[in-house]
Write a structure and sequence with these properties.
membrane, transmembrane, ABC-2 transporter permease, transmembrane helix, 208 residues, mainly alpha, ABC2_memb-like
Length: 208
């Protein structure tokens, strides 16, 4: 699994698309989302970076299945994919924190560079979105997964950007923060585990 992680990190760091997003997304967001509350801006940034980090390995695996390139069992592949989400999330938090801290230190803007409330809010949304994408990938294969990825990116990014402007006033915002985020967190964990077990069962008998 460490070999897979090293491969994914290389894909992430050497991707020109990732470099552009990681460098330019925050300045663009400050222009596009000027009226956004600081905390929801932080939410958008962490979500977008996590999804961006996830993108490169996911699309690479669609074109070149892991089981064909590395000596690793199908069960280990599935487990790795689901666990790697938390690695991507951690990298996104660190990069967001460093970037926004630099903006603060330089006096460019007064921004939140760490917001625990929003981290608790954004993680369930990431888990829900990726649980769907992983299940589609391991069940239906690359062609359907590519389409699902595109649709999910457009829909979820649109919802996230709307959160930035409406926050708790929106239905999604109220759902995310209801009960201090406990309800959606429980739902996300259950859905993610169900997706994991279904993917393991489906992928072990799948023809590649």
């Amino acid at each position: 699994m460490l070999k897979l992680l090293k491969r994914d990190l290389k894909l992430m760091f050497f991707s020109n698309f990732n470099k552009v997003v990681f460098l330019l997304f925050i300045p663009l967001l400050f222009i596009i989302c000027k009226p956004c509350e600081q905390k929801w801006r932080y939410f958008i940034i962490v979500y977008t970076y996590t999804y961006t980090i996830f993108t490169e390995p996911f699309l690479y695996d669609i074109s070149s299945p892991i089981v064909n390139s590395l000596p690793i069992s199908r069960k280990e592949i599935v487990i790795y994919k689901y666990v790697s989400t938390f690695v991507y999330f951690l990298i996104a938090i660190v990069w967001t924190g460093v970037y926004l801290w630099i903006i603060n230190v330089l006096g460019i803007a007064d921004v939140d560079y760490f917001n625990l409330e929003m981290l608790r809010a954004v993680l369930p949304m990431i888990l829900i979105v990726l649980s769907i994408l992983y299940l589609v990938y391991f069940d239906f294969g690359s062609s359907v997964a590519s389409s699902a990825y595109a649709v999910m990116f457009i829909v979820s990014f649109n919802r996230v950007m709307m959160l930035g402007s409406s926050g708790e006033k929106s239905l999604l915002g109220r759902l995310i923060l209801s009960g201090d985020g406990k309800y959606i967190s429980i739902m996300a964990i259950i859905l993610y585990l169900l997706s994991l077990f279904m993917s393991m069962n489906l992928y072990k008998t799948k023809d590649i």
